[in-house]
Structure formats: C-alpha cells, structure tokens
Amino acid sequence: MFKKEVIDQFLFKQIDNAPLIVFRIIFGLLLFLESVGAIFTGWIKRTLIEPDFTFSFIGFEWLQPLPGNWMYAYYTLMGVFGLLVMLGYKYKWSLGFFTVMWTGVYLMQKSSYNNHYYLLIIICLLMLLVPAHKYASIDVKRNPKIQSLSMPNWCSWIIILQLWIVYTYASVAKLYPDWIDTTVVENLMSARKGYPIIGDFLQLKWVHYLITYVGIFYDLLIVPLLLWKPTRKIAFAASIIFHIFNSIVLQIGIFPYMSLAFTLFFFEPDYIRRLFLKKKPELQVSSIHIPSYRKAFVILGSVYFIIQIALPLRHWLIKDDVLWTEEGHRMSWRMMLRSKSGYIRFKVVDKNTDAVEIVNPKKYLSRKQSRIIGTKPDVIWQFVQRLKKEYASQGKEVAIYGMGKIKVNNGPYKTLIDPNVDLSMEEWSHFKHHSWILPSEKE
Q1: Is residue 326 included in any domain, yes or no?
Q2: CB neighbours of 43 closer than 8 A, spacing ≥ 6?
Q3: Tens digits of per-residue pLDDT, 12-34?
Q4: How many domains does the chain have?
Q5: Which of 213, 252, 424, 427 registers the highest number of CB atoms within 10 A of its CB?
Q6: Is 204 exposed, middle or buried (0-12, 13-18, 19+ CB in 10 A)?
Q7: Do 59 and 109 have their domain in common?
Q8: What was the pLDDT predicted at 1?
Q9: What does residue 338 show for φ and ψ, rounded to 5 degrees?
C-alpha cells in the first residue's frame, strides 16, 4: 500500500505546466523548420525525388515517395502542422497528422537514415499523450474551459526517462577501440577539413581526443547532472556548448536545438514560468489527481520503457559484431560510431541458359543511394529482390550473387557478402543473423 501511495504521489502530483507549454512552442517551431529546411536544402530532391525508387524499411516496400514534385507539397503540409502545434491549434490533430507523415517518410527511405529521425517519432508520440495545449494556445482561446495551469508530474518524467535511455546507450556504444583511440572522430573531422576558420583546428590530435572523451562522458552524465540542482546550471551551460558545436560541425538539423529544449523539464517549473511565461498565474495548490485509468497507465508505461531499454540490446543476441553486420543497428542509439565505404557488383546467372551478366547497381541508383548499396546487408538484399523481379518480368529465372568488399573506419577491405550464396533465394529476418554475411574477421 505504501508503495502504491509513493507511486501515485510521484506520477500524479500536479505541478506547474510551464515547461511543457514552452517546450510545445519550441517543438512546433522546430517541426516547421525541419520540414521547410528539407525543401530549401535540397534534401527532398536528393533523397525522395531523384531516385527511381527508395529503399524502404523491409516490410514497408509499398511506402514510396509521391510522384513528380508532390513530396514538396507533402513537406509543406508537414510544416503547416508544425506551426499549428506551436500555436496550439487543434493540437492533438495537428501533431497526430505530423507524426503519421513523418513516420511515413522515416519508413520509406534509408539512404539518409539518422537515429534522430527515430527519436523525433518517439517524442511526437509522447507529446500526443500530454496536455501541452492547455495554456498559451489557440485551443484555449477557442475553448477557455480547457485551460489549465498544471499537469501531472509524469508529463515531465516520461521525457526525462526517454532522454536518459537515449544518452546512456549513446555513451555505452562508444566504448569500443576505434572510438576510444580517436579513429572514428579523426575520420569524421577529416571530412570537415575544408570548413572556413575551424577546418584546420578540427584536424588537431588533441581536439580529436577532446571530442572523443567529451562525447562519452557528456552522454553518460548529462541527465544525472541536470537532475541534481547543484550541477544543473553548469550542465546546462555545457549542453549549450556541446549542442551548438554539434550543430555547426556535424550539421544535424534541428536536433541539437531540440536537445537543448529538453532541458526545460529539468528546471523547477516555477522558474520556467517566471522566465518565459511572466503573465501566467502561479500554481497555488499542488494536489494529486489519480485518474480512473491509473492501473492501465502504469502497466502500459512500464511495458513501453521496458521495450525502449531492451530494443537497443538486441544486437547482443545476434551473431558477430553489429558494426560489421548492421544487424540490430537501427533504433539502438548507436550514433555516428563508424564510417563505412565499399563496392559491390552482382553476378546474375540465368538458370535455364547459364548465361552470366554482371550488374553494376549504380546504373539503377541515385548518387546518394550508391553510397550505401555496398555496405548495408539489408539494402543489398532488397536490391537483389528488386533485380529478381525485374528479370522475372522478362521471363527469366535467375540466381543472383553479390561480389564486393567494404572497409570500416578506414581499415582494410574485407568481403562482406558470401559470393557463393544465391541471395535471391534468401529470406530476411529482423532478429537473427544471416549466414550469407561473412564474419568480420574474414580477410
């Protein structure tokens, strides 16, 4: 009974909702900027318009970009929904439509895969659960009865716990030789040698060590340091430096700024109210409102976070090194951990005539897609299935073999795919090793 009361006190205590309201405004603006930024930077053209087809997540091959230039309209509409989220107009509907559209784009292409895209889906889903529209919103102006100065304590903690999972896994994933000896960071920075002013600075060895170990310890410690009041402001200052550096050097869109916005949930709600919402009345009484769905809420919330903790661990159950096989890499917070390059050709053998044809995948792919075709087994498998269908449409039954090599972190070239396996006959599994991916130690 005592434990239940403690849980109820923690989860359902009403606190000032200022952090959530301010975050909603910033979050909606960032959704807008992400959407229109994809248009004006040429990302949509390179990723969704130029290719004849995209490599969707396996199982979602039916998800392909709209024809012609309609993806510009698609992203424009997403930008409008982002602004509506910021303004708090039909908040749940606006964010719901954005979430569906963003998830669609995430699932329809992998040539621009980024863990942050997945994080945005998660944050959108969490933001759909919370009453972020109940102050400083058009929804309140249209219906003043919904206005509220408070929110349950869990509204802050689901964001904090999700961040802790992301940052902790990001830190632990860096604890491997090529990161620790600065190889990964050196490769990342060498690609930025031409940056004005800071390009040469980024090539210094001591800078590589600094970036390497700041990356490990920042990710590991930032959530605890933000939670502890004596270190909170120092941790926030460190976050500003860390994320602005990432924005300038790594150029990863809105995500450094969204990460800074997350820090709102670590400060005292009253402090955020006085800083950003000076006209908002102070919350006078802190009460506990236990909803009728309490039991279901606790159970479903526990299941969700167990999945979030377990999913990034799945690669440990799959044979060989995830850095080599990529099996279990996605949705595991393994961010900017390695560089890969390679090449591949496909030997197509007609089963009836034994005629052999060598296919260069670049003739089918955009420049951006060509960069990943030789290094990612799932993409290789998908391309083979597409080739198989193309030859079948010509009345030919073929066997298809992959021939190529890759290198990881500028190491030696090694054979990734068994050249003796007919890939067209292989099945794909999301949760087990594929024997046609050769061991990483094989030369």
Answers
A1: no
A2: 37, 112
A3: 999 999 999 999 999 999 999 99
A4: 2
A5: 424
A6: exposed
A7: yes
A8: 47
A9: -160, 160
